[in-house]
Amino acid sequence: MQSRKLSDLERPQTGTRIRERRQALEIKQADLAGAVGISASYLNLIEHNKRAIGGKLLNDIARALQLDPAALTEGPEASLYAALCASAATQTGADAAAETDRIDALTARFPGWAATIAGQQRQISALEALNDALRDRLGHDHVLADAMHEVLSTASAIRATAAILAEDSAIDPQWLARFHRNLHEEAERLADRATALSKHFEADQGHRARPEFGAAEAVEHFFDLSDHHFPAIEAKGTSTIAGLMASAGPLDPTARRAAETALADYAADAARLPLGPFSAAARAANFTPEPLYAMAGGDVALVLRRLAALPLETGAPEFGLAICDASGALLRQRRHPGFAVPRFADGCPLWPVYRALSRPLTPERGVIEMPDGAVFQTWSISQPVAAISETGEPVLQATMLLRQDEAGFGTPVGPGCSFCTRPACPARRSPHLAG
Asked: What burial letters (b/e) apply to 139-163, b meaning 16+ CB within 10 Å?
């Protein structure tokens, strides 16, 4: 007998799944609400499907309920299907291709084996993500680099002093005492630096709530916490920036000025393309940028930024955003889960955002493919944001919006040379960290 596919009305909604999972784990509504930083009354509205949910809050609730977010939005069967498809996609060197058209039969006849394969795939993906994060950390953590330099310098000084003592038996007693004192001081310095280095890693193992960032990373982290959408600014403009900054927590003066500037830019964008009319037009255009350019008076970058700021409850897909200057330095980004960008490293030279710098004021649409097979549609533009007063030369800034495509092929790109696994890329400028 052929199984019947549930209609959208018959499928449990996200809030219902959250409530059922919470009750199965015997977690009180107030406890779950406190764990994710919302009120119990708001969680109650979510659980009764009276409030839309997405982005960071959905991820936080899924983590608290020990589930994949897809299991809440699409149901466990969708999460299982996606994991099995991902597992099949990674088996490129297998003798026989996986029969992806028979996944439904596999899950129906052998649900235990299907769940085992899916679980292994999720574990592999998690380990790969951890591996990438550790490579990023080892290659670009300035605290680690400075500490290692100090440790190696101190060890070299100890070695040189010890060599003198070992090779020269007729040292003047005063010099001998001085060498012994230097050796003792350097050994203590080495112990102190090694202890500090250990504490640096222990702090990360403790999952610090607020990592130590530079100004750009601190602003990105601040925007991430709000899922790059600020309802107060959308409603009341720049007058709300002071209140938002008061809730930002401790920031050094440079990071605070950068955050205030970023929020002011956000407010200017919101004033030029108000959320209500823009989100309605974006929905009518299926969240495709080109039909919206005229609405912004031809300011393509403005449209791309506003699409990246739409909340998921408007029906918008999950967008990624990258903005760079003419040097290629990333000034701002909204990360997409499938488009990994090292926090402290350069991006891939084949990204369309960089190519746009060679074609100012020319909007481009493209398709790119990451090494893991994820495919993204991209829209990019470079536009002048200022001019050099002495020469009148424009100062260019490039913007790229991207969203994941369901299928197809695109231009092969990577997350940056140090982390890219494409061995024969003609644009590679540095070797992979793993060798």
From this structure: bbbeeeeebeebbeebeebbeebee
